[in-house]
Specification:
The chain has 346 residues and is mainly α. The chain has a domain of 177 residues. It is 77% helix and 2% strand. It has a two-stranded antiparallel ribbon. A two-stranded antiparallel ribbon has the order 3-4. Strand 1 and strand 2 form a beta hairpin. Helix 9 crosses helix 13. The protein is globular.
Length: 346
């Protein structure tokens, strides 16, 4: 139990440094998409070079999210010696398609690797260069090897299996498909599992199956909208930092950026991830049953002009987001009550 508490502290360390990247990147992306027309392929920046520049800057901020999250999880564990292997591990997580979850794994891995190396007794003549040369180089080598050679291939294989599975499910029960897609979209919030579901839905647009993208489009924005709504409706349950992240999440949810939920999930994955998965499932199922069709490979309220059955689409997002906000706040209250009872016992 003590180790779990430590891990939570490490995760919160990474989140605290990652939040500004989520907020600034999300705001810039939201601003750019809000002022360009939508086409069948999504936002059209062909005649808006300034908005495209803003989009690129915001996207650059987002690319740093996973490395920063990973690096400062490791920093929270072992201070400065964890930064290099943590940051490099996060970059590799992005490169191999491991996304947000890969960043958490690489950050924890980097911290534990440094801890182990520090226990090794090196020759005295190496001691002066340990913190600036031996420790970062050796830990980075180990973390990089594990991320590239052990984690990369299984993740890639998993993505291929999921893609094949989704292709088969596309011809079967539409509600079951909506449940699967909703869960996948929310599970890693923009990571490889999310992207697998998204690209499958986008591919189905070309086949004329707009309802699959419709279900995904609703599911995509529910996690950030729901968590943002939760911070507004029950302010006392959330820290000032979390409320600031909630404001950014609302803006990101409107334009269909699931990554707005990452700071919350990284800080409390046991409660947040199941909550957003259930909420996105509900939204996806409502959208599927309501015959919502999305003609653009994107999600959120920003694609409303290219949506079939717009009222059902808005209803799906509203129900899913409210469910998310209510459920996570209930779980937060139960957690606070449990902690209070434990304090009384102690």
């Amino acid at each position: 139990m003590n180790e779990l508490k430590k891990i939570k502290t490490y995760l919160l360390s990474g989140v605290s440094y990652a939040i500004p990247f989520v907020a600034s990147g999300g705001i810039l992306i939201a601003l750019s998409i809000a002022f360009v027309p939508m086409s069948a392929q999504g936002p059209d920046f062909s005649n808006s070079p300034i908005m495209k520049l803003i989009l690129d800057i915001g996207t650059s901020a987002f690319k740093l999210l996973v490395p920063v999250l990973s690096g400062y999880i490791a920093f929270g564990m072992v201070n400065r010696p964890g930064l290099v292997p943590g940051l490099v591990g996060g970059v590799i997580a992005n490169e191999i398609g491991a996304g947000f979850l890969g960043g958490i794994v690489s950050g924890l891995l980097a911290g534990y690797v440094v801890m182990v190396i520090k226990k090794i007794k090196f020759p005295k003549f190496l001691v002066p260069v340990m913190p600036i040369l031996i420790l970062p180089a050796l830990s980075t080598l180990i973390v990089g090897f594990i991320m590239y050679k052990i984690l990369g291939v299984p993740i890639k294989d998993l993505m291929n299996i999921l893609s094949s599975w989704l292709s088969v499910m596309g011809t079967g029960n539409s509600v079951v498909l909506a449940i699967i897609l909703g869960a996948m979209i929310a599970f890693d919030m923009g990571g490889p599992i999310n992207k697998t579901a998204f690209f499958f839905a986008a591919a189905m647009i070309k086949e004329g199956h707009f309802n699959i993208m419709g279900a995904c489009a609703a599911a995509i924005c529910i996690p950030p909208l729901g968590l943002g709504l939760a911070t507004i409706t029950a302010k006392s349950l959330w820290s000032e930092q979390e409320r600031d992240a909630g404001k950014a999440a609302l803006g990101m949810g409107i334009i269909g950026i699931t990554e707005g939920a990452i700071p919350f999930a990284a800080g409390d994955p046991i409660r947040v991830i199941p909550t957003i998965m259930l909420s996105s499932i509900i939204g996806a199922v409502i959208a599927m049953l309501g015959k919502v069709g999305d003609h653009a490979p994107h999600g959120g309220l920003i694609v409303l002009p290219v949506i079939d059955n717009k009222l059902n689409y808005v209803l799906a997002i509203l129900v899913g987001s409210v469910t998310c906000a209510l459920l996570i706040n209930v779980l937060k209250k139960l957690k606070a009550k449990k902690n209070k009872n434990l304090e009384h016992i102690v």
